[in-house]
Model the fold of this input.
Amino acid sequence: MAEMTTDLVRQPAAVLAKAMAEGEVSSEDVTRAHLERIAEVDEQVHAFLHVLSDEAISAARAVDSRRAGGEALGPLAGVPLALKDVLTMKGVPTTCGSRILEGWRPPYDSTVVERLRAADVIILGKTNMDEFAMGSSTEHSAYGPTRNPWDLERIPGGSGGGSSASIAAFEAPLAIGTDTGGSIRQPAAVTGTVGVKPTYGGVSRYGLVALASSLDQAGPCARTVMDAALLHAAIAGHDPRDSTSIAAPVPDVVGAAERGDVRGLRIGLVKELGGEGYQAGVSQRFAEAVDILTSLGAEVVEVSCPNFEYALAAYYLILPSEASSNLARFDGMRYGLRDGDDGQRSVEEVMALTREAGFGAEVKRRIMIGTYALSSGYYDAYYGQAQKVRTLITRDFAAAFEKADVLISPTAPTTAFRIGEKIDDPLAMYLNDIATIPVNLAGNAAMSLPVGLAPEDGLPVGLQVMAPPMADDRLYLVGAALEAALVDRWGHLLIEEAPEL
Done:
């Protein structure tokens, strides 16, 4: 059983799905193998906050029964998945990594969960995250940090470090993350996995606990580009319950991943996303990947996006402003934690005590910044100006996409840093998202995929591909072509080089 368990947990989702469809293995076997893996290694990794063992086995048996009955099932039927704890799932604890939601069990499913259920995907449990998705290291979780499977003394990225760590540790073949400023892509980069931020509005936000409503976007995490495409296709599409959802056909991401061809494609190298401040090994592996793309027939051109240098500053005004508004609902009155309610205190006092006890330091920091930026007399000077910068960044993207079909850059300026190294330096922490933030401000689609290990520390490096809105399929064309070339060179996926836990 041990050999079979090891073999099953290391298989890509597409391989597992095919084996189940052909009757070579059952969903129950696959699900049990991953639950055993979680039991074996998650004490070290801490990717999960809540494991749904009984529910997952029950769902797997139901899929096996329907398949045995001859029912036609979807391409991911029976495949296990880890779910970021920011998406509601009926009756299952949803904490967003915060004490203030401790014990809350939502009475409804998010649209993403509904679509996962409809696709017969098996949800293994909820993954750890920076509190309310505020962070780049998963150190800001109220329930303790997640650790990077490549080096347990290092961060797995954030805010979705739990989701990326779960697939990097072979605890799940697929995961769902959310990306507000890089929270899918940066963890993918530092864990040697694939992460995709779909076009804003391409995947429903209904049931996604909001951080910044104009930036948040759920998306797929996987170990291969094809697996990400299959998951992307399963969760994407219009939802009338989300007013920002795009009423347009989902781009053919699976077909693009199958083709994986960059011949004749114009690839723009973003001048402002690289150079000074980027780790030498990151720049080296990125340059090698650019050479591979050229050898595959792509035309690589340099493009300039001059307003990208203001993206970080604009983002850290827009996000806190929206967060201060969205998080006002957590008051101890309706659900979650309630502190200081002794029958003697006023409602205002109970609210203040609840927020003091329930919110962590990073959340409080951003709420205060956002409240200040929105306050009377400062709104135009801060929030209003930041929105003007956002418009300039969107225009930069539009101009760049006139010269190139996709844009590329390193995903993160460095490999995974040590836990605790930047926790007391918010600015240093924020700089981890310098290359990913512009995409969220403009609403574009983007992917991170692994392109090798940095020679200085032997840790994964990610390359970011960016596409225009609703051209998500281009990400998969480039990603699949580059991944195939790298696998030919290495003889295996990069994740296979991760140390044994």
Remarks:
- The first helix runs from residue 2 to 9.
- The chain has a mean pLDDT of 96.
